[in-house]
Amino acid sequence: MFKLPAAYFTGVRTKHLDNTSCIVSVKHRWINQNPFNSMFWAVQGMAAELATGALVMKKIKESGKKTSMLVVTNNASFTKKATGRITFKCEDGLKIDEAMNKAIETGEGQTVWLNANGLNSDGVQVSSFNFEWTLKVKV
Predict the structure, then answer these.
(1) In this model, does residue 3 exceed pLDDT 90?
(2) How far is CA 136 from CA 40, 49, 60, 115, in A?
(3) Measuring CA to CA, which residue among 27, 34, 39 is closest to residue 85?
(4) CATH number of the domain where residue 59 is located
(5) I need a surface site. Which of 57, 91, 107, 114 has the fewest CB within 10 A?
(6) Total structural domains within the chain
């Protein structure tokens, strides 16, 4: 709540986090809607970014190394109106492990593309977000 107040107030919540995946959920409500009676794209983006970023933060903490992280590029596609509960899942934990290990071994910054797809309660994809994260171990 204190680190991401906009996400908190719009209803974005982390539901699951382990070594390989993160699940974040948000329900379409008045506070996060657009003029077309669906979820505002930026709210979906916050949920999707959190699904990828929480995994990155977990891996950094587990490494014990001070590491900076930053989104340098992102893209998204929208395939259906986002109404009801939308769940974003990132299953790219192993990609982060590889990038972190390489950053630690080489001392050079690494980039990794992570994906989070948004599914409605019927399991239909409504959006797909990709984030290019940079990881650099601080000396």
Answers:
(1) no
(2) 32, 19, 10, 20
(3) 27
(4) 3.10.129.10
(5) 107
(6) 1
For residue 29, the enclosing domain spans: 5-137
Neighbours of 93 (CB within 10 A): 18
- Token code pair at residue 42: 């930026």
Query: Which pLDDT value is given to residue 2?
Result: 67
Apex 42 CA angle, 36 and 43, nearest 5 = 85
User: What is residue 46's predicted lDDT score, i.e. its pLDDT?
Assistant: 96
* Alpha-carbon gap, residue 34 to 44, rounded angstroms: 11
Q: What is the DSSP string of 2-68?
A: -S-HHHHHTT-EEEEE-SS-EEEEEE--GGGB-TTSSB-HHHHHHHHHHHHHHHHHHHHHHHTS-EE
